[in-house]
Amino acid sequence: MSRNGPLALIFHTIFVIVMVAPILVVCLVAFTPEGFLSLPTNGFSLRWFRAITNYPEFIHAFWVSLGLGALSSFVALLFAVPAALAIARYRFRGRDALAALFLSPLMIPHVVLGIAFLRFFTSAGLGGSFAALIIAHVIIVFPFALRLTLAAATGMDLSVEMAAVSLGANGWTLFRRVTLPLILPGVISGWALAFIQSFDDLTMTVFLAAPGTETLPVRMFLYIQDNIDPLVTSVSACVIAVTMTALILLDRFYGLDRVLAGKGDTGR
Amino acid sequence: MSTAADERNARAPWALTAPALMLFVGVLLIPLAMTVMLSFHDWGQYKGIEPVFILKNWHEIATDPYYAEMFWRTFRIAILTTLLTALLGAPEAYILNRMSGRWKSFFLLIILGPLLISVVARTLGWALLFGGNNGLVNKLLMSAGVIRSPIPFMFTETGMVVALAHVMMPFMVLSVWAALQRLNPQIENAAMSLGAGPVTIIRRIIMPQIVPGVLSGAIIVFSLSASAFATPAIIGGRRLKVAATLAYDEFLNTLNWPLGAAVATLLLVALVLIVVGSNALIERRYAEVFR
User: What CATH class is the domain A56-264?
Assistant: First the structure.
């Protein structure tokens, strides 16, 4: 394969710098020793990270986001794993339609979902509750949980299951001792990707969150609407750190390119 | 023979998918239907929402030029964002694909990783870089001699397009990169051995093969940009409204839910039509590539 020419490498360098710059600048400004937005030219300081502790709203929102992401991803898997097994193994009428329905939250704009859930949960008397947030997040992370589980279930060697059945295993034992361990990498990666999606969602959640159930992105968004100061950059830096950790775990477990290939393919 | 087993086989997939199906019907399809219905309800400042069937909201959207202008702005921003990501993302994917293994995966991580980083944090980064008339971007462009006077980025469509293109870029790179994976590198060498110059190779060999990737990336970027909320809200401020931020305002500030529901329904219908239509077009035009 031929190498890239100098022009291509210059283009590539500028491209990468532009891609990284906004994220880098947030992380740098977070370490500013000044009281205003500025790059830390006179040494680094942690004062804006300490300042977070004076804002219990951010800390509370962080815990809401963490709990919401962990719980909704787990619940989504409870529904997604059996569905993935059915779609991977059986050819039945309505299979394609079902798969399309389960992946449809990827295609529906989150602002529409937010409105639909707000209307629905308000008339159900659950407006602004944590339960409503969980259910709504289960729906939006479901496609990610389903897709990675589906990939694992499709690639599974069925003869192992048959061997287990011939040895007398059936039903629950078969699932718990044979099937689940075999698809576990896909399930865990599905959970992690679902968690990141839930943890980052703003557009849908901003419609549902009420004071007390505000997630971190919602709290940050509302804060930015009023004013931008170094505090919100240090909070952002923490969020980026959490996401990076999940990203690295995901890469170790599953390979990031495979995960992202699943995320990018929202058109079909 | 063994009809009992067959019957169980036929029932098993439905038993396994039933919980998820009930969940989706109960908390996705019903709320969406309720939203469409809501757009036909009446609303007044003092009486609130009245559950009657009325075309008032749709009439208002159809006749008030404010909404035409807002939807036109939304789609204009989405189109420009899509063009920008295609123009820059496609060559970058091509360059990435020509790199050697270790560098390739490293830069792929750098470029695709932001996909998973909070959109609020990424847009905040652009707000910091734009920062009024003497922001970092303007200083850099002026000292490089690209522009004479600062470009206003904050609270403008230019700024929205730049920040949105950054947010959406990974989708385009990913899509083109996937198309390049299906391309046989030997074809390029074959063309070269037959005397084709680099321009001919790009135009006759590479372009036709990555166009489907660019187009499917464009559909994703377009639909996500047209319904984007965080970036237009932060960069555009309170005055420069797009469909998503307007719907948000109607729901949480004005409290005119039926009107907001009509805006959202229209956005959904328009996007579904555009996405399904262009998907069908692409698949017919490039049937052989998707096989």
Answer: mainly alpha
Residues A102 and A83: their CA atoms lie apart, in Å, by 9
Give the range among A80-84, B11-15, B242-246 with minimum mean pLDDT. Answer: B11-15
pLDDT of residue A160: 86
Residue B101 CB coordination number (10 Å) = 7
Using a CB-CB cut-off of 8 Å, the residues of chain A touching B28 are: 104-105, 116, 139
Q: What is the mean pLDDT of residues A201-220?
A: 94
Which pLDDT does position B2 carry in this prediction? 47
Under a CB-based contact definition with an 8 Å cutoff, are residues B227 and A110 in contact? yes
Tens of pLDDT along A142-168? 999 999 999 889 888 888 888 888 898
Walk me through the domains of chain B, giving residue ranges and CATH numbers. Answer: 65-290 (1.10.3720.10)
- Whether residue B267 and residue A112 make contact (CB cut-off 8 A), yes or no, is yes
A1, A86, A109: residue with CB nearest B185: A1
Query: Tokens 């969020």 correspond to what residue?
Result: A239
Single pTM value for the model: 0.90
- Residue B44: phi and psi, rounded to 5, are -140, 155
Cβ–Cβ gap B13/A87 under 8 Å: yes
Helix A180-200 to helix A130-154 angle (10° resolution) is 140
What is the signed CA dihedral for A232, A237, A242, A246, rounded to 10 degrees? 130
ipTM of this complex prediction, to 2 decimal places: 0.89
- Of B176, B200, B124, the residue nearest B289 (C-alpha): B176
- Phi/psi of residue B50, nearest 5 degrees: -115, 120
Task: Kindly list the residues from chain A whose CB atom is less than 8 angstroms away from the CB atom of residue B251.
Answer: 115, 118, 207
Contacts of B243 in chain A (CB under 8 A): 111
Tokens 């950790």 correspond to A245
8 Å CB contact between B92 and A11: yes
The band of A1, judged by pLDDT with boundaries at 50, 70 and 90, is very low
Position B108 scores a pLDDT of: 86
- Are the Cβ atoms of B264 and A267 closer than 8 angstroms? no
Chain A residue numbers with beta carbons less than 8 Å from the beta carbon of B240 are none
Statement: residue B134 has pLDDT above 60: yes
Cβ atoms of A30 and A236 within 8 Å: the answer is: yes
Which sequence spans correspond to the domains of chain A?
A: 56-264
CB contact under 8 A, A267 and B124: no
Of B262, B178, B171, B280, nearest in space to B222 by CA: B171
